Amino acid sequence: MEITYNNEIKERFIPIAYNEILRGYVKNLGVEDIESYKKFSSVLHLYYYHYFYSELQELKENYHPFNPDSDVVKVALSIEEYERKEGLLFEQITPILNHANYEMLTEKMLEETMNKTSPYGVEVSVDFDDFEEIQLYFRGESHQTESRRDPRKLYLKSITHTEPVYRRLFLIIKPKHIDTRAEEIAKKEGKDVEKVRKKLLKQNPLLITDSSNRSIYIKLFKNIPQMDLEMLFPNTKVKMTLFDKVKLGVLGGGGTVGGGSTLIAKLSAAAIDPISALMALGAFGGILWRQVKEVFTRRTHYMAQLAKNLYFHNLDNNAGALNYMIDMASEEESKEALLVYLFLLHQKKAISLETLDKEIEVYIGENYNIEIDFEVLDGLNKLRTLGLLVEKDECFKVVGINRAIVLLS
Asked: I want to staple 31 with a disulfide (CB 3.0 to 4.6 A). Which of 26, 312, 346, 380 is the partner?
């Protein structure tokens, strides 16, 4: 399996390691004072690490009352305090994801992907009304190419299949309480609330039943096919694909009809022979069982495929996912600041914003074969905040590298 970035879509994410940016710059521009550049790179990275570490502590404090994996005592809070911390949690997560160069998956984008059939032969449905809150973010749109044996060629030859994938997906969900969901369904369908609640208890373990449980689930995934987004949600329901429905209908229906005809013939011929009649009934029962077994086997295959996909694609969960996101935010901010500083440093005179933006994007395209939409203004603002930027007549340059190291130390 091979995954390549989609250069038709220019993203602000920089898919190059922080250390590789400096290494490539030093190599391609023939820098001589390498140690100074390494020192500057190190102190810049350290600055953003400390900055986002403080963000992480605040984020973890707000998430603690809602963390389903917490193994320490949770002190009961007032309803107002729970709501305040929940609001702060969602309010803080959005800018952190933005710093990590994630994009929100809009409702329209989600609907479009949900209407597609999975290349794995897996179709599932998701009831989004089970959730009080859903936020889904992605980063890195790519193509996944793999070879599979072609059944039309008797599995003797392979075909190459390409599909769009998200390199990273961040999901945060808050399930509804079972009483709330039961009231919604009862009102919509005109049913008794208590009967609906009992049914939900049996069929929907996702919903919250304990009034003290205020869990919010956070998941981080990698390399998820865009047509398989449903598998990320905990309330997915497996469905048969159209191809398998037709297959089972033709084979199962034909087999059952044929078996039924044979049964009638044998029963007619063996009306006076009870043993032959029992044997005929047993044979017909075997035909029915084979078709039912095929349905359950297919369902089990689907569930195994989903479990396999989630096992290999899951990166982190809950508080661990927050730590992961903070690391990525720190990394992306560092890369943006480093690129802008390095490209301004080697200029003999101050240059405009447009020229700087074009130089960086061309450099990355030529050296790494990746097209990005570099946020040059964001990078300039970072250097301005750090006191490294020199501005005059809407043109920019930076302080010398030794001075920059002192300012950041």
From this structure: 26
For the chain, helix (H) and strand (E) counts, in that order, are 12, 11
How many whole angstroms from its chain centre is CA 380? 30
DSSP-derived 3-state class of residue 397: strand
CA distance 213 to 73: 13
Q: How far apart are CA 343 and CA 363, in angstroms?
A: 10
Backbone angles phi, psi at 159, to 5 degrees: -120, 150
**Contacts of residue 269, Cβ cutoff 8 Å, sequence gap at least 6:** 276
135 burial type by CB count under 10 A (0-12 exposed, 13-18 middle, 19+ buried): middle
Burial class from Cβ neighbours inside 10 Å (0-12, 13-18, 19+) for residue 115 reads: exposed
Nearest to 102 by CA among 193, 22, 172, 21: 172
CB neighbour list of residue 281: distance below 8 Å, 6 or more residues apart: 263
Q: What is the pLDDT of residues 341-393, one digit of tens each?
A: 999 998 888 899 999 999 999 999 999 988 899 999 999 999 999 999 999 88
Query: Which helix (H) or strand (E) is 395 found in, with range?
Result: strand 395-398
SS3 314: strand
Would you tell me the crossing angle of helices 178-189 and 193-203 to the nearest 10 degrees? 120
Tens of pLDDT along 189-244?
999 999 999 999 988 888 998 888 899 999 999 988 887 788 788 887 766 555 55
Residue pair 187/106 in contact (Cβ under 8 Å)? The answer is no
Structure tokens at 242: 């159209």
Residues 6+ apart with CB under 8 A from 232: 136, 169, 171, 219, 221, 224, 310
Both tokens of 163, joined, read: 């599909």
